[in-house]
Amino acid sequence: MIEAHMKEGVIDVLMYIFSSYIESDDILPDDRESMDADLREAGFEAQEIDKAFDWLDGLALAGDIPAVSQSAHATRIYAAVEQQRMDSKIQGFLFFLEQSGVLTPELRELVINRIMALDGEDVIDMEEFKWVVMMVLFNNAVDQDESTLMHYEDIVFADQPAIFH
């Protein structure tokens, strides 16, 4: 039960950081010590904060992933451990985001990588999945303008079923 709590704690820290950053570029300080102090003041535990920083470091490093060349007809096959973390609804929504042009194959792999980097072994829920997608999109937004990112956010957070038959 502790692992599930830790996963929720880390994702909560990440969602707090991300939502604070999105709302105002100036809310969170640039240096980790000040950010750590702000997060502790917000009620997060040191271990959760450290794991969130490690996760963000992984996101930054993953930007160096080489391009994935694949056919437009290629199908992503999920490993058993990936299927354990991402149920069929998550997999379907991930497919939808790629087919709709929100995610490239590289960004899809980065989303999967960051989901697998979260603590625990439980299935990630849809809300957590959407937050991970947005963190990946905003971290890799060099070629995107703000209106495109807001459009992607609307697609990701739309309350439409993502079930494919």
Structural class: mainly alpha
Order of helix and strand elements from N to C terminus: HHHHHHHH
Note the total helix count. Answer: 8
Show unreliable segments: 1-7, 161-165
Task: Count every beta strand, where a strand is a DSSP E run of 2 or more residues.
Answer: 0
Cα shape: globular
Name the helicity range: 55-70%
Describe the structure.
It is a single chain. The chain has 165 residues and is mostly helical. It has eight helices and no strands. 63% of the residues lie in helices and 0% in strands. The protein starts with a helix and ends in an 8-residue tail after the last helix. The radius of gyration is 16 Å and the shape is globular.
Quick recap of the structure?
This protein is mainly α.
Blueprint (SSEs and pairs):
Elements: H1 2-23, H2 32-41, H3 46-61, H4 80-85, H5 88-99, H6 105-116, H7 126-139, H8 146-157
Helix pairs in contact: 1-3, 6-7, 7-8
Give short descriptive properties of this protein.
disordered N terminus; mainly alpha; globular; disordered C terminus; 0% strand
